[in-house]
Amino acid sequence: MASVDHRTVLAAILALAVAAVAAGCEEPPEDAAMTDGLLVLSGDVGSVTLRVREDGRGRRIELPDPATSWVSAGRTNVLLATLVDGRTYVSDPLGDEDPEWRLVEPVTLTDQPPEPPLFFGTWDPPGAAYAQLGADFSEGGGMRAVVVDPGLEQAVEVAVADGQAAPAPAAWIDDDRVVIVAAAGDAGEAVIVDSATLETQPGPPGVRLVTTSADASTAAVWRGQGEPIEIQSTESWLAQQPASIRIDVPDGASGPAVMALDGIGERLAVVWTDGDGSPVGIAVHAAASNWGRVASLELGEAAAATVAWLR
């Protein structure tokens, strides 16, 4: 497998910018409470901080290592943290105090660990297992879906594609199946991986980034530069039906770098990137406001950021 500078790759993944988004209607007033339950990881690549939004304000959460590149939340708000070097930690349930973290070192059915490094980490709808992407992000490098049960420290590994991997997190579409995005020239295509049967099949075409709600009922999809974010039921997206909800990319932005739907798909947090990759802030949209922007967060001097929702 070809070598790659993973720090450079993660810098590209995390060098994000956020701008305000109009949703085709009069913009509602800002409501900081609409950010409650949002996890915000931000800072410089290799030196980030994690905060959880509570009562319209952010509370800092201690990380296992400041070189964290990705976070997400599973059942009872057990947190996952993926480090720049590909190691993965999970926490005890998040409470009022800083959580304890432990390194997860799973083995596959052959009693061997999954081939490192592993990026991202998306919890399944039950919140007990998570899917990661194994790839070198080089031309023709191939990619793997790795589904880990951290409680049992067991994993299954499925080869997804021989082509170029897209640096995008997986999205669950039900309790067993997860969508991985594979790069195909200037476009992207979804590949559906069944973690129960270890089989793969093509998913909807023309996908650059996809996220689903924690219950897998709602999908947010971005098809590429110049295209809006589309929000619809996961079922209708898989059936390739048109979406009626669209959030346009704002002026000065090239597209979303990170999207996160909340537990039942009623709020969407978006991290936008501009042409220079300079971070600006975080925008939150809500179904209750016709998917208009209801809150925004500034990132100050941060050079990297990502977002996730508690359950």
What features would you describe in this structure?
By secondary structure, the chain is mostly beta strands. It contains 2 helices and 24 strands. The chain has a 4-stranded antiparallel β-sheet, with no helix packed on it. A 4-stranded antiparallel β-sheet has the order 4-5-6-7, with no helix packed on it. It has a 4-stranded antiparallel β-sheet with strand order 8-9-10-11, with no helix packed on it. A hairpin with a 7-residue loop joins strand 9 and strand 10. The N and C termini lie far apart (37 Å).
What attributes does this structure have?
mainly beta; 2 helices; 24 strands; disordered N terminus
How many runs of DSSP E, i.e. beta strands? Answer: 24
The percent range for strand residues is: over 45%
Q: What would you call the structural class? A: mainly beta
Span of the ends, CA to CA: 37 Å
Order of secondary-structure elements = HEEEEEEEEEEEEEEEEEEHEEEEEE
Shape: globular
Return Rg in Å: 18 Å
How much helix is in the residues? under 10%
Spatial strand arrangement across the major sheet: 3-2-1-24
Number of helices: 2
State the major sheet.
Answer: 4 strands, antiparallel
